[in-house]
Amino acid sequence: MRKERVGFAVCGSFCTHEEVLKSLEELTHIYETVIPIVSETAAFTDTRFGTSEDLLERIRKLTGREPLCDIPAVEPIGPKALLDVLVIAPATGNTIAKLAAGITDTAVTMAAKAHLRNGRPVVIAMASNDGLAAGARNIGELLVRKHYYFVPFGQDNARLKPCSLMADFTKIPETVDGALRGEQIQPLLVR
After folding, report:
1. What residue ranges define each of the domains in the chain, with the CATH number in brackets?
2. Contacts from 27-32 at CB under 8 Å and sequence distance 24+?
3. Which of the chain's termini has less CB crowding within 10 Å, N or C?
């Protein structure tokens, strides 16, 4: 197993959690250390897609660790250099906007800020219903920033949701590997 330490941050896009958890499971077979981080919204909100406790329990079982779900829990990521790479999946439009604006008011955005202070890669696996509308400028902002790497993405349903963008979550492990080498995998646009 690989020795690099992976942080895996889960945000709210609840309809994507099943796919995201498959990628998390795959990473736990590749890397011996995967540290789970869950946004407050995902950690404490029950939806039609499942309960928050079920999500947290599944993450615990996959990683063998207690998910970090608040700012004080993730703040040491930077000072202690706990991670080699941080994955944010799904990265919602809200999280992407906060990262672009430098806002650190959630466990996930604080984890990213703390991690980036060490000049290490952040992998973005987006799921945003407004990626080709209000969110486009935020995505563009992160695409040109150093240390951000995107999981290839495209329109997930151009006919019914023409502004929606979704990462190909199956490419998370490949993107993590590329990010650890300082390379953005290509092609970036899929579907």
Report:
1. 2-180 (3.40.50.1950)
2. 27/87, 27/172, 27/173, 27/176, 28/62, 28/63, 29/1, 30/1, 30/2, 30/173, 31/1, 31/2, 31/3, 31/4, 31/5, 31/6, 32/1, 32/2, 32/3
3. N
